[in-house]
Amino acid sequence: MSPLLEGGWVQAAWQGGLGLVVGSFLALASVRLPAGEPIVLARSRCRSCAKALGPHELVPVLSWMIQRGRCRTCAAPIGWRYPVMELSCAGLAAWAALATPGLPGALGALFAWQLLLIAAIDAEHYWLPDRLTLPLAITGLLAAALFEAHQALDRVVGAAAGFLALAGLAWGYRRLRGREGLGGGDPRLLAGIGAWVGWQGLPLTLLLASLAGLSLVLAARLWGRPMAGDDRLPFGAFLALGAWLSWLHATG
């Protein structure tokens, strides 16, 4: 095994472990942020009986398995959100490390974690809050400025182009159809994505996002559940998927 690959596996292990912890926080954020509740300062509690959770009840994945997905106090179901988010964050972090070991892999994990939270909230609530999309752009530009200076200009252009592309599309659709066709958060999300993948990664991101959305519509039709004219698609979640695959393509 080459030293590079060996280092990648070591990094994948520790990033995956860190991802479990990050995933627990992101699962909590995905519940509290849409509800307008404090995320960082408030203690973790059972949402049914409000009992504060102890350290032994907050171990990622393991606590959920030992408690069989239920609160130890009131036996209310906890649900799959927490282990799924924890394992997803771990898997994405390890994937980033194996795709490109070293600092780029660590930055890729940060990118993936932000995309995952954005996708989860948009898929569930059709909402792309500025509290998530703006930090995505800021971290992308900071990462370029501090660690990837040769890409800084491409990232700035990517952020501007991403915003203008979808903002222009939304404006044109509104003028032609007289109604909204895109949510207001989509241009800001694509700006954040452009800050990470540069302008070069935007076409692939949009292509993959569109294909993912089209695939969902076709699958619904094949399963006998045609989507009504007013059915919405969480396009932000598809953009997040396209952005991650675009980042992997660029690093491959």
Give descriptors for this structure.
252 residues, 9 helices, globular, single chain, 0% strand, mainly alpha, disordered N terminus
Please write out the topology:
Layout: H1 3-35, H2 62-66, H3 81-99, H4 103-125, H5 130-147, H6 152-177, H7 185-197, H8 202-222, H9 235-251
Helix pairs in contact: 1-3, 1-4, 3-4, 4-5, 4-9, 5-6, 5-7, 6-7, 7-9, 8-9
Provide structural commentary.
The protein is mainly alpha-helical. It is 69% helix and 0% strand. The chain contains 9 helices and no strands. α6 (152-177) runs antiparallel to α7 (185-197). The longest helix has 33 residues, at 3-35.
Question: Short description, anyone?
Answer:
By secondary structure, this protein is an all-alpha fold.
Largest β sheet strand count, sense and barrel closure: none
- Give unreliable regions as ranges: 1-5
**Element pattern in H and E:** HHHHHHHHH
- Helix/strand structural class: mainly alpha
Give the CA-CA distance, first to last residue: 19 Å
Average pLDDT works out at 91
Proportion of helical residues: 55-70%
Find the count of extended strands (DSSP E, 2+ residues): 0
Spatial extent as radius of gyration: 19 Å
Proportion of beta-strand residues = under 5%
Number of helices: 9
Shape: globular
